[in-house]
Amino acid sequence: KQWYQRRVAITAGDSTRVHSNRLRMRSACSCGRSISYRSDPFTLESANHEFYMSLSDKCCSTLPQHRLFGRNQLSWMICNIGPASSYQTTVGIEQPGFLLGSQYLLPWDLPPDEAWAPEPKNAWRGKRSVRCYVGYEYECSKGHRFYCTAGGVPVKGSPANMVKENSGGNNVLSDMVLYTTCPSHTNKPLLGQLMRIVVCSPEQVSLSVCLNVSYRNILISLTAPDNVQIPGGKMTVIRLPYVYCDENDNPLPFDIEAYLCKGALIPMRSNRRRNDKK
After folding, report:
1. Residue 79 burial (10 A CB sphere; 0-12, 13-18, 19+)
2. Residue from 43, 162, 54, 34 nearest 95 by CA
3. pTM to 2 decimals?
4. Omega prior to 202 cis, within 30 of 0
5. Cα(223)–Cα(262) distance, rounded to whole angstroms?
6. How many whole angstroms separate alpha carbon 215 and alpha carbon 53?
7. Which residue of 115, 155, 195, 277 has the smallest Cβ count within 10 Å?
8. Cα 78 from chain centre
């Protein structure tokens, strides 16, 4: 109930005063490398822009990034946080706030004959599948972070017991809930919100980002009219909105049935290697 009240409390901007209910949460920055406290937001700008910009100078501003608008509000961002080769499968993502065992990206194997839309179907016949890694990251109000599989089930892995083969591919091909229960052991379970998608792809795989959210029977297209392209060979973070709004910029209240539509990441053949050889 408290979560619901916090969401509906966000209103249109008030130029004469700053609203505050003195609630504070812990949230990670856009790239996820730092965590700080944030006040409960009462405007879309403070929810989706001001907090992340306040941390940007100390962290994210040093990274290649692409700030993007959801309708009229700057609401989400893409950051490159390093080469894809920097991800270690036995270690997982080394960032603050992750629950033990929940920091591992999931393998995403691309079938060579099916996953390359720009290429003729037989162009990759006889070649091995290409492995990427992807993680759908959730974050609760205490700053606990964890990756989930389809259905909002938290990842639980270890160096000795790695996650299931191609489970990341199942995520990409599934609707991912926006809210799920945080697996931290507390007396009062908190809800985690889908806040980031992290993907590592080899140089020959670029990705088209197509973000559509179903929220209270409203389809919100963050990437319309054109999809956003991210290059191969990178570890990339897609930071999602903290608060969603309708076509009139009215904030939408919490909805347990809201989800990110399947197909958020579309693999494409990258020309990087071909161009680098010229």
Report:
1. buried
2. 34
3. 0.85
4. no
5. 14
6. 26
7. 277
8. 9
